[in-house]
Amino acid sequence: MTDQADPFASLARTGAEPPPGCPAHAGAVSMTGAEYPQTPSKLYRMLRRDHGPVAPVLLDGGIPAWLVLGYTEVTYVTSHDELFARDSRRWNQWENIPQDWPLLPFVGYQPSVLFTEGDEHRRRAGVITDALEGVDQFELSNECLLIADELIARFAGSGQAELMADYVHVLLMRTVVQMCGMPSTGDDTLRFVDDLRISLDAGEGEDPVAAYGRVGERLRQLVKEKRAVPGPDVTSRMLMHPAGLTDEEVVQDLISVIAAAQQPTANWICNTLRLLLTDERFAVNVSGGRLSVGEALNEVLWLDTPTQNFIGRWAVRDVQLGGRQIKAGDCLVLGLAAANTDPQIWPEGHVGAENAAHLSFSNGEHRCPYPAPLLADVMARTAVETLLERLPDLVLAVEPEELVWRPSIWMRGLMELPVQFTPVVQ
């Protein structure tokens, strides 16, 4: 097959040469090509064909890692913390990582729940779980509904909207920061959410490391405010928890909570709207069709999950995985999207959305803490259903193939989702 026939063939061995002693071999594939984010399933198929369920890849700057593609293998890695741990200080590549490496916000060790292990992780995750359990799901749905109605009213009379900017991101931003005790509006909140976006998914010319620092400073201010005057919010419940987290521990864990809640859920909503507006299976009964919306939300988690890949795990010792020899300190990237479409679990080639055994919220002790997936579902379902109920003849304003995915190997979301509809007189 030529490079012209297979756009991903040209990705092999691109970028800087991997450092000496890395796990990459002659077949290693760079994950930084421009083609990859638009049709990642092609890359997954190529990697499975050439390498099986565990593939050698190159991250930014030619840094080597393993991409775990198989459903069974991802489940095994996430279920065996004693072999594949979260403390990134184990990485055998730190001497090759520059201070401005764009993935530092993901892998640079922080004293947060993301990098803790064993009893300490269970303690920190327990605080988050208890704080999130204090969120009333009916109140959360009602808050989402009120914000959604307000946002829809702003563009309902125009007959057109760009849903990513005008609706989805604003809705999730306001809901999540309000849940954590921050003001839901204002320039300060807008700057905070934009910095969060940059730290997770930086565009060209943006500095994710600096943005991550600003996110931390704003949350330190919030924690100081809530320590003095607690309220009925997630931050206050974390501060008052009997586990006795320090202010800095709460700051670090809040970053994890907000980052996991805001952008991934926003992309989940938009990916679901795209499915509903482009797939004829949902065309007949979309408006007000709660069953159809629920099916679409679940199908997106299988086929277009917002968190495509997650970095990662670090091998505690030399170990075999998927026929590969993993060295102690090697980095493993969890290919959640690839695992969800693994032909070993869908042998007929058809990925069904009939169950919720996907890995979109990861797996094992480090999966999204309960009840975070339930709260995300409340926000996503309310956002989609409210929009379709208020604007029942909503259609895409462009051809489906004109939609452009964000240039990210980590997050799966559209750059824009332009729609049109019959103007609604308020």
Automatic annotation (TrEMBL):
One of its GO terms (molecular function) is iron ion binding. Transmembrane segments: none annotated. Residues 1-28 are annotated as: Disordered. InterPro entries: Cyt_P450_B, Cyt_P450_sf. Belongs to the cytochrome P450 family. This is Cytochrome P450.
